[in-house]
Amino acid sequence: METSLEKLPSPLEAEASLEEDQEVPSPEMPPPLPLQQRESMPPIGEMPPPIPSQHSSSQHRPSPVVSLLKKEWLRFQPFLGKHWNSFVSSDKQQQAEKIFSKVEYELSSLKKTSPQRDLLVLRPSEHETQWQLWKFPNRKEDAPILLDDQTLPLAPSLKTRLLVGVPTRDLVVIPLWISTEGNLQELIELELSSKHLLRRGMAEGLKTIPLETKEGRILVVVLAPTSSPSTLTAPYLKAANQFEASARLLPHQYADLLVWRELGEVCFGFSRKEQFVWFSGTNETMVTPATIGLIKRMTLRLEAEAILQETPRSLHIFGSFSEEERSLLKNFIGMSATALDSKKYNYYSELPQPILSTPPLDLPDEAARDKRLHQEKSLRLKRIIALIAFIYFCLLLLGGSALFVKKWTLQYFQHRITKEQLAIEQANQAITQWQEFRPAIDPTAYPLDILTEIARQIHGEKIRLITLAGIEGKLQIVGEATNVTQAYHFIEQIKKIPELQEYEWTSGQPKLAGKSSVRFELEGSRSHAKTSSE
User: Fold this and answer.
1) Which of 364-378, 407-421, 447-461 has the weakest average pLDDT?
2) Nearest to 223 by CA among 243, 209, 240, 233
């Protein structure tokens, strides 16, 4: 039921309704049952398990908006003065309470949209070319809502999930006894192929429901969509997220034989172990003796194959069937036309609300499977592209981070070099000044100090110093000795002078300079002699 704020009564309309003493029906009272359904109602003590109906509604909790309206109404009472007492004493107070109940009922349907996607169930109606659209809220305590009974194909939406009930005419249902040894799927396909029931494109869409295991065999129900759905069904399958057999949306757990009308066609099915073992359409718009004959033949065939254990003894009818049609079906299960036994027979003039199986039996047709395969390939390609883009982004981020770190490091060292440049220049100036003043103040560089230290190594008249030259960190000593031994001894003594330790000395072999006289030369240079001049 669609609800909008425009449908709520205005204060003037509510006051007018109070003055006219008109009865406002309470929303909590259920609508009266149709005459045919009242006739078929069994005694209270023999009621079957309850079957959900589209008229059922959840108990609404008091809305905060209604509580606020009542509070404001009580605050308004003192302003009415003496007229309020007469109003309270009249019967119109009950009318006011009914108005509040109606407002509460209307506001209860205006709930906030759930952050999760609600489930929409689209199933075929009993009338030709008409479908029903049901909404299943995410909150389990909320009852399903019938949105539209003559709906058109829906457009895909990201806010809802759409489950389409595939019509019975577009499904193939085959019950089989299969050996428990071996691969179940392969055995099913082999059995269907041997019976020439496996058509092109059906193997990919096969769904199996195991029911019972007995003496090394298992009873399974195989369901598969036809290769091409009917023209009335195809437009409704395009926007679906999931698919389910429309017959499985009916409450099939409480009867052996179920009969319903779907898209103007009479359909029937058999139940075992609270599961459908077989269902199909009849290509008939009404229940006739020919329809009963078809049901009898299918019953005998299923009993012969041990699919059904016995002839159906209970019957459920859903939809607008005439009294004559119901009588034919009652006679089939051995009941009189006027019998009202709820344990064997129940009639519901309308299709009940859908019953969802968990998980739903997904039955997409060939076009839907191709669409899903295309979407999976597209999604896989998008994921690969996204992964490549992510890796490229990570590499780009990593390279950019490394480049940023190098650039920052370069700027940091440039800043340090610029900062230390002044100190370096001052140090170079100090080094230059030191090199300039060193010959005058450094004992190791002042020629007179060097000469003094060398002269201390001369003992007697055996050694005679001829030349002492010092230029740019270099010393050249030329002297004479009486013999070679004394010349070498004098050279070793010079190398041991502490003030001359930083010099590296080279000497040649002493040469004869005259009678009882040898001449020797000695050169020394500091390791930083070259750099000191720069």
Assistant:
1) 447-461
2) 209
